[in-house]
Structures are given as structure tokens and as C-alpha cells.
Write a structure and sequence with these properties.
The structure holds 2 protein chains of 2 kinds. By secondary structure, chain A is mainly α. Chain A is built from 10 helices and no strands. Chain A has a single domain, classed as Orthogonal Bundle (MetI-like fold), CATH 1.10.3720. The radius of gyration of chain A is 25 Å and the shape is extended. By secondary structure, chain B is an alpha/beta fold. Chain B has a domain of 79 residues. In chain B, the strands form 2 sheets. Chain B has a 6-stranded mixed β-sheet, with helices on both faces. Chain B has a 3-stranded antiparallel β-sheet with strand order 2-1-4, with helices on one face. In chain B, helix 5 crosses helix 6. Chains A and B meet through helix 7 and helix 8 of A and helix 2, strand 5 and helix 4 of B.
Chain lengths: 254, 274
């Protein structure tokens, strides 16, 4: 009996919260279907078709797609390099103080979303692909550094220790004893993040960080729906292709 | 003098006394087998001789150096002269055999050379030459996770041979090999040690192999040396005392306690942790 009462209480609480949210935001869902709203929506959707296929627009799109690809690739590469260095500290291989400091840095980098980094970087580096690259590099360095450090912590210490006992220096022992154990994971994580970053790079353009996203933002602002449709299609095709490529590469590594 | 221990004891951080007041001298070029039941301290002793552990009491001298007094570069120089063969060699599974063998000389190579060799093996011929006598030359470019336990042990041996150490330590170097291969490998190790005039200290579980291949045998039990003599002077009495197990006493006295029967008993009943 009391359980039923409790369930009833929860359900009514959720309903109350829903009603309160709607009234606070002043949303009018039914307005979507009132009067000529459906017609307007339909005509706006129709204005996206057919997509613009003029050769000069397509070549512009190709350049934009390449820019997005380059932003994500360079951003991920920089992030992987920075993440690798920071993960060495974060895994506690170089002392306890540097461990907590680098963990703090990684957490900060990671907890700021890339879109916010992009807005900040546009202020710092100006409009364009450079800002987008920096934004992706900063956020992804935080993510990859954390993942790399976890892989390092799980890697056995014996191979490197055996080499140290045979007189090898710390760097050489790391490269021969530890790196072969973590490298496949590091590469797989980087590829996966690269995949995510291509989608992200397409969106970053909205805050002025270059690539396809910026073209989408401009065309939509100028009410050039058919041109925007081409950009959207290009985004979808690019993401699908890269997803397939990255999945194939990771399967080969695994 | 290759190795000298004066009253060396070792107590693990947990308080377990693995070695107690060992006095031991091994001359350069000597070949010595260490035998004893599981948990006698054989591995601890070998790690001590390999500078992987420091004694908690007594004085230790390796190749005329006191490893506890050495730091940095001088310690590394001493370590390049000592090679330890592990029971299960800690090799990264994805590493190629050639790289794993070449890693033996990291202590002698400069860092740029080591990094270059990681991308392209600089001395593949040297690695092949080290693998050849162990019958593994055809596995030069195989990955370590494609090898069997016995093959991995031989890769570990090849690495230490390639290292060119003056003091060769081996912790159960043939435990994963079949009897014929184990015999062959121990004979090879002894021959190479003899040819190069280097000191060889190996721990072994197979008593017959120890007596057959090594001129000098040390019996270790509960961290103490029970006997230390020429292989030809080891008596059945010595061995019975070495492997006597209170919980197995009944079983051992029923059947005439030959070494082989005793060993079989040990293998069947005593808990093993390797």
C-alpha cells in the first residue's frame, strides 16, 4: 500500500514539474499545429529543396569540407601529443606533485566544452580555422590525457623495470617496455576522438571558427536554404565516411 | 671475485624474512646452480644479485662493486654488466622478437640510437646471431604474443646473451620447456658461459638438470644455505633434507624416497605459485 502511495507521489511530482516548466518557459506546443503553422513549416522545409548544385558552390563546399577535416585532424594530433605528455605526469610517473597538478589541468581542459573553448579562442585568435583548431586541441587534450593516463596505469611495470635492471635509461626503458603495451590503446582512443572532432568541427563554425559550420551559419542567416541543404548533405557524407574509415582502422588495430 | 655476500639478510616490507645471514663467494667464471623448495628464497637471492633488490643487512659485492653505494650512471654501468633471465620474461606482447632481443643493449646504446632502432632494427643481424643457437632465428620478425612459453623463455635468454653481461643470472630459465629442450638449453647456457668466461648463477627446480650441468650446487631452504658443494659431492641425504616437507613426510616414507618420487609428490601436493 505504502509503495503504491509512493509511486503515486512520484508520478504527481513529475507531472507538477512538467506543468511548472511549461508555464515558466511560456511554451505553446499546440501553436505548432494552429492556424497556418503547418503550412509555413512545410513551405520552409520545401525551400531547402532542391539542394544547390552549381559547380562553383560545390567547389566552395569541397574547400569547406577540407577545412573542417584539416581543423579536426590537426586539432586531434596536437591534442594527442599534449595528452601523451600530460598523461605521463598524470599517471604519477614523474612524482606526486606533478601528478595532482597535471590532473587538475586535464580536468579543467576537459570540463570546458569545446564550443566554449571555440568562443574564447575566436576572441583570442580571431575568426577562422585557427581558432577552431585550438579549441578542439584544448578540449581533446583534456580527454585524451585522461584516457592515456588510465592506459598507462593499467600497463604492467615489469617490462620496463627489467630493462632498467639491465642498465637502460628511463626514456629508453619506457619506449621499449611500456610504449608497446599502451600504443594500440592510445591510437584507438585518438582515432575515436578524431571521429568525434569532425562532427564538432562542423558545428564550431557557428561561433566563427571556420569550415563547413561557418558556411552553414552564413547561408542560413542569408535565407539561402538550398545552399544550406548542400552544406548539410556534405556534412552527413563526410561524417559517414570518416566513421567508416575510423571503425575500419580501429578494428584492424584491435 | 664475481659475487661476495657477507651476512646478507633481506626482510620484505611486510616483515617476511626471505634471506637470513647468507655468506657466499662465487669466483669469476664459476657456474653455480641454486636448488631448493618453492619459497626458499631463490628468486629473492637472484633479484638481489641482479640489483633489483637491496639487502636489509650485511654487505653485498657484485663484480667488485657495492650496488647499494652506487647511484645514477655508475649504477647503470654496473647493471649493463649483469644480465637476469626471468622465469617468464616480461616482454610486451605486441613487440617483435627482434626488438625484444635488441632491447638487451639499451644500457650501452645512446638514446637516439635506441629510438632509431625502435622504428627500424639497427642490428637485426646481431639479434639473429643471438637467436640462432636457441633455434629461434626463424622467429626474428614474429610478435611475442605468437610464441609459446618455452619460446618466450628462449627469447629472454637471447636478449641476455645479446646484452653481453659479465654476470649471468637465470631464474628457472627452462621451466616452460620440455625435458629435451631444457637439457639442450642448459647445456648451451653453460657452454656460452664457459666460452666467454662469464659467471653463471641459475636457480632450478629440476635437481637432475642442476647436478648434470653445473659444477657447483647450492641448496637453499627457508632463506638459509643448507649445503654448498661440488655437484658430485651432493648426497641423497642432502637432497632429502633440502626438500623434506612435514606435511608430505608420511607419503615420502611409504615409497622409498627417491628424488624423483619426492619431486613428483611435491608437484602433486605442494601449492605452487608460479
Amino acid at each position: 500500500m505504502s509503495r503504491r502511495l509512493e509511486a503515486l507521489l512520484w508520478v504527481s511530482a513529475i507531472i507538477a514539474a512538467l506543468i511548472a516548466s511549461f508555464s515558466y518557459l511560456g511554451m505553446d506546443l499546440l501553436g505548432l499545429f494552429r492556424g497556418d503553422s503547418p503550412e509555413q513549416m512545410l513551405s520552409y522545409a520545401q525551400s531547402f529543396f532542391p539542394p544547390e548544385t552549381a559547380p562553383d558552390w560545390l567547389s566552395k563546399i569541397a574547400r569547406g569540407a577540407l577545412e573542417t577535416l584539416a581543423i579536426s585532424a590537426i586539432g586531434t594530433l596536437l591534442a594527442a601529443l599534449a595528452g601523451a605528455v600530460l598523461s605521463l605526469f598524470a599517471a604519477g610517473r614523474l612524482g606526486r606533485i606533478t601528478k595532482s597538478l597535471s590532473r587538475l589541468l586535464l580536468n579543467t581542459l576537459r570540463s570546458v566544452p569545446d564550443l566554449v573553448w571555440a568562443a574564447l579562442m575566436v576572441l583570442a585568435a580571431g575568426l577562422g580555422p585557427f581558432a577552431g583548431t585550438l579549441a578542439i586541441a584544448l578540449h581533446t587534450a583534456g580527454v585524451l590525457g585522461r584516457l592515456f593516463a588510465e592506459a598507462l596505469e593499467n600497463a604492467p611495470v615489469e617490462p620496463a623495470q627489467a630493462l632498467r635492471d639491465a642498465g637502460a635509461g628511463p626514456v629508453a626503458a619506457f619506449c621499449y617496455g611500456t610504449l608497446p603495451n599502451v600504443m594500440p590503446q592510445w591510437v584507438a582512443y585518438s582515432l575515436y576522438r578524431w571521429e568525434n572532432n569532425i562532427r564538432m568541427a562542423a558545428v564550431l563554425g557557428f561561433v566563427g571558427a571556420g569550415g563547413l559550420g561557418q558556411m552553414l551559419y552564413v547561408t542560413l542567416s542569408l535565407f539561402q536554404q538550398s545552399r544550406a541543404m548542400t552544406v548539410i548533405l556534405a556534412m552527413i557524407i563526410m561524417v559517414l565516411l570518416v566513421d567508416a574509415l575510423s571503425a575500419w582502422l580501429r578494428a584492424r588495430l584491435g | 671475485m664475481s659475487i661476495r655476500l657477507d651476512g646478507v639478510g633481506l626482510t620484505h616490507p611486510g616483515g617476511f624474512r626471505a634471506l637470513e645471514k647468507l655468506d657466499l663467494t662465487i669466483a669469476a667464471g664459476e657456474r653455480v646452480a641454486i636448488i631448493g623448495p618453492s619459497g626458499a628464497g631463490k628468486t629473492t637471492l637472484l633479484r638481489l644479485l641482479g640489483t633489483g633488490l637491496n639487502p636489509s643487512a650485511g654487505r653485498l659485492s657484485l663484480l667488485d662493486n657495492d650496488p647499494t653505494q652506487l647511484r645514477g650512471r655508475t649504477l647503470r654501468t654496473l647493471r649493463t654488466r649483469i644480465g637476469l633471465i626471468h622465469q617468464s620474461p616480461p616482454l610486451p606482447p605486441r613487440q617483435r622478437v627482434v626488438t625484444a632481443v635488441l632491447a638487451g643493449r639499451l644500457g650501452q646504446w645512446s638514446l637516439p640510437r635506441a629510438l632509431a632502432s625502435l622504428c627500424y632494427p639497427l642490428d637485426a643481424e646481431g639479434a639473429r646471431a643471438a637467436l640462432e643457437p636457441l633455434d629461434l632465428a626463424d622467429k626474428l620478425y614474429a610478435r611475442c604474443d605468437q610464441l609459446s612459453g618455452g619460446q618466450l623463455q628462449r627469447v629472454g635468454i637471447a636478449r641476455v646473451l645479446y646484452q653481453g653481461a659479465d654476470l649471468l643470472l637465470a631464474d628457472e630459465p627452462v621451466s616452460a620447456m620440455d625435458p629435451v629442450l631444457a637439457d639442450h638449453t642448459l647445456a648451451l647456457l653453460n657452454r656460452i658461459a664457459d666460452e666467454r668466461g662469464i659467471t653463471l648463477v641459475a636457480s632450478l627446480h629440476a635437481v637432475d638438470l642442476a647436478l648434470r650441468h653445473f659444477p657447483r650446487v647450492i641448496g637453499l631452504r627457508d632463506g638459509k644455505i643448507l649445503f654448498d658443494c661440488a655437484a658430485s659431492d651432493v648426497t641423497d641425504n642432502d637432497l632429502n633434507g633440502l626438500y623434506a616437507n612435514d606435511s608430505l613426510l608420511g607419503a615420502a616414507s611409504e615409497s622409498a624416497p627417491t628424488i624423483a618420487a619426492l619431486q613428483e609428490n611435491l608437484i602433486r601436493t605442494a601449492p605452487r605459485c608460479f
